[in-house]
Amino acid sequence: MTVRLLGLNCSPRDNSNSGIMLETSFDQLDTTYPGEAEHEIVHLRDLHIEPCKACNVCGKTKDTGRFIPCVRVDEDDVQTVLERMVAADGLLVATPVYFGLPSDLFSRFIMRTRPLRHQDFKLANRPVGVMATAGRRSGGAETAILATWLPFVRNGCLVVGNGDGTCQFGAYGWAGGRGHILSDEWGLEQGFQTTERVFTLAKVFKAGAEATGFESPMKFSYSAGMRP
Ligand SMILES: Cc1cc2nc3c(=O)[nH]c(=O)nc-3n(C[C@H](O)[C@H](O)[C@H](O)COP(=O)(O)O)c2cc1C
């Protein structure tokens, strides 16, 4: 069984610390678990990503009983990323810390995952781990990690920390300029631990689902929790 992992690099910079964090983590995964994982990195900066236009059409899916894709589907590159996320068994998200939050590129992209939620939670039960790189110690890496988690919870994913002896909130990279992360040994180690944790849980979940024929029972309700 091969476990598919997708890394989302949410830095707008080339040669970014976030991208390096994902690359080194996947390299170490290959060394530690040879042949067990397939992985790819989507660099959001390379894509055309329009913002959600708040038309609410994707939210009408369940009212009509039909699948109505996002109205932007032919306007940019988002749909292909959504399909790759759905095909993945686990997700790793790496973002720079901006004002204690994930990048605006992450925010713009993640709003566009709403159609997946409205299609009975197509990302349900995917383990998700986050790596956040900040220029300053105590500069908001953990708040950025938590903020990154939230939309994945909303998508029915299983957010995880790094799962070592301390079980931190994921990976905190401490770096400023491009490539500085390479000297942050502890940050890179946490990046691998987070990747390993997602990989392990994705493997166990996939094996269990295949053995039992499990299919996610989660059904999206358009009306639950809405004001009448
Ligand atoms: C607009 C902007 C806001 C930033 N805000 C913070 C911040 O709140 N806290 C912090 O520690 N570093 C902050 N930084 C520094 C970046 O997080 C840091 O340079 C990081 O290594 C960038 O990662 P990247 O190479 O993956 O883009 C900010 C940088 C920019 C450009």
Précis, in short:
The protein has seven helices and six strands, in the order E-H-E-H-H-E-H-H-E-H-E-E-H. The protein has helices spanning 17-32, 61-64, 78-87, 104-111, 114-118, 141-154, 185-212, and strands at 3-9, 37-43, 90-96, 127-134, 158-159, 171-174. The mean pLDDT is 95.
Q: What is the CATH third-level topology name?
A: Rossmann fold
Low-confidence stretches: none
Distance between the termini: 47 Å
CATH superfamily: Flavodoxin domain
* Overall pLDDT score: 95
Number of self-contained structural domains: 1
Structural class based on helices, strands and sheet pairing: alpha/beta
Tertiary shape: globular
Task: Label the CATH architecture.
Answer: 3-Layer(aba) Sandwich
| Rg over C-alpha atoms, rounded to the nearest angstrom | 17 Å
**Succession of helices and strands:** EHEHHEHHEHEEH
Largest sheet, described in full? Answer: 6 strands, parallel
Query: Which strand-content bin applies to the residues?
Result: 15-25%
Overall helicity: 25-40%
Query: How many separate helices?
Result: 7
Q: Which ligands does the model contain, each kind named once?
A: flavin mononucleotide
Number of strands: 6
CATH class: Alpha Beta
